[in-house]
């Protein structure tokens, strides 16, 4: 492992392939900036460390298959992940107070991943390496993996790949362009995902994931828009991956200042402004977001983790075979909880999932 903090550098795959592992470890290559402004953190796991990490997870296989205590299991995979990530505090700090995203390259994934899932369920014959990496990394850096009963069948680790019959939806189940958004923008802050961890298993035709940070958006907003976006002038609509009714729409702001830090929540394709003035401010916000997009180009084993309160994400149209997995993280919700949104959105009852995934 090697943590590198410094200005972003663009290195092409050809350049990287030309180096030995030793050299590559000393280089910075993570999110390729379309527009770079400041410092970013990237972690590179060496091939040797990756193999070691994978072996440790393989030794857990039986335990994972029969796991009935998700908390214990997450603790275990998190202790393992923690050994390969270097300075965990630095990563946590970057996520909470910094730009809000970190890339970990070279994570282990399962062997023989040729068949993509075509539904929201994980393939039955798949081993648990990538899931253990996602849960482990998310927890090792201070966030509790959790999910929602109404999303992706209540799974703790989500399959992010086109789902048969949903290709045309602008969602994580679709293939068409998915505009910049925060996940669960319509949800109250205490149950909204604070972090998203995305792990690449396959991305044959290079469909980048796009990110934009709050600071880069704020730097381009007029004071009048800042005010408009900070007031409850917008209807937030649930995404169509959530199996909830229209009554779940919520009226709120897009920008909020929490504990002295700016945050944002919006799905730019579905948010409905209440007034014409709010519509103009939303347009300005979207323009600022689009002109500050950072694109992460995937390689299998890349794990991108970002603060869902301080970054928006999206992607272009999916062309080839593409399979990511995702895990939500929170400091408010407990490890392994699956929130049932249909009971009482103000005070959701939760249940602990069994078995593990
Ligand atoms: O497919 C991607 O790159 C991102 C999809 C997405 O929005 C998500 O997983 O929440
Ligand atoms: Fe998303």
Average predicted confidence as pLDDT = 85
The CATH architecture designation is: 4-Layer Sandwich
How many beta-strand segments?
Answer: 19
Number of helices: 10
What is the 3D shape?
Answer: globular
* CATH structural fold name: Double-stranded beta-helix
Low-confidence stretches: 5-39, 352-356
Our count of domains comes out at: 1
Write down the Rg: 19 Å
Task: Assess the beta-strand content as a share of residues.
Answer: 15-25%
Oligomerization category of the chains in this entry: single chain
Give helix % range: 25-40%
Structural class of the helices, strands and pairings? Answer: alpha+beta
Major sheet: size, sense and barrel closure?
10 strands, mixed
Q: What small molecules are bound in this structure?
A: 2-oxoglutaric acid, fe (ii) ion
Query: Could you give me the name of the CATH homologous superfamily?
Result: Clavaminate synthase-like
Distance between the termini: 27 Å
The CATH class, by name, is: Alpha Beta
What does this structure look like?
This protein has one domain (2-343): Clavaminate synthase-like (Double-stranded beta-helix). A hairpin with a 2-residue loop joins strand 11 (255-258) and strand 12 (261-264). The radius of gyration is 19 Å and the shape is globular. Helix 9 crosses helix 10. The protein contains ten helices and 19 strands. With 357 residues, the protein is an alpha+beta fold.
């Amino acid at each position: 492992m090697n943590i590198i903090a410094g200005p972003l550098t663009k290195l092409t795959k050809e350049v990287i392939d030309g180096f030995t592992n030793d050299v590559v470890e000393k280089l910075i290559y993570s999110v390729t900036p379309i527009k770079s402004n400041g410092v970013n953190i990237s972690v590179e796991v060496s091939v040797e460390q990756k193999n070691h990490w994978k072996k440790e997870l393989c030794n857990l296989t039986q335990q994972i298959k029969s796991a009935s205590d998700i908390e214990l299991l997450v603790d275990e995979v998190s202790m393992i992940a923690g050994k390969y990530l270097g300075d965990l505090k630095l990563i946590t700090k970057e996520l909470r107070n910094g730009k809000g995203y970190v890339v970990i390259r070279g994570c282990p994934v399962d062997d023989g991943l040729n068949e993509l899932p075509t539904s929201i369920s994980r393939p039955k014959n798949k081993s648990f390496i990538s899931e253990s990496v996602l849960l482990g990394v998310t927890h090792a850096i201070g966030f509790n993996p959790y999910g929602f009963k109404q999303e992706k069948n209540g799974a703790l680790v989500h399959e992010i790949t086109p789902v048969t019959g949903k290709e045309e939806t602008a969602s994580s189940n679709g293939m068409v362009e998915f505009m910049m958004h925060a996940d669960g923008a319509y949800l109250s802050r205490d149950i909204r995902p604070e972090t998203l961890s995305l792990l690449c298993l396959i991305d044959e035709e290079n469909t980048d994931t796009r990110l934009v940070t709050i600071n880069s958006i704020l730097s381009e907003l007029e004071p009048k828009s800042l005010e408009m976006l900070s007031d409850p002038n917008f209807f937030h609509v649930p995404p169509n991956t959530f199996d909830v009714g229209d009554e779940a729409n919520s009226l709120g702001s897009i920008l909020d200042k929490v504990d002295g830090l700016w945050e944002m929540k919006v799905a730019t394709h579905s948010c409905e402004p209440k007034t014409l003035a709010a519509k103009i401010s939303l347009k300005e916000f979207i323009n600022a977001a689009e002109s500050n997009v950072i694109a992460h180009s995937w390689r299998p084993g890349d794990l991108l983790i970002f603060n869902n309160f301080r970054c928006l994400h999206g992607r272009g149209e999916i062309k080839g075979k593409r399979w990511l997995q995702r895990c939500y993280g929170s400091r408010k919700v407990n490890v392994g909880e699956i929130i049932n949104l249909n009971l009482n959105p103000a005070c959701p009852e939760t249940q602990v999932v069994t078995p593990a995934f």
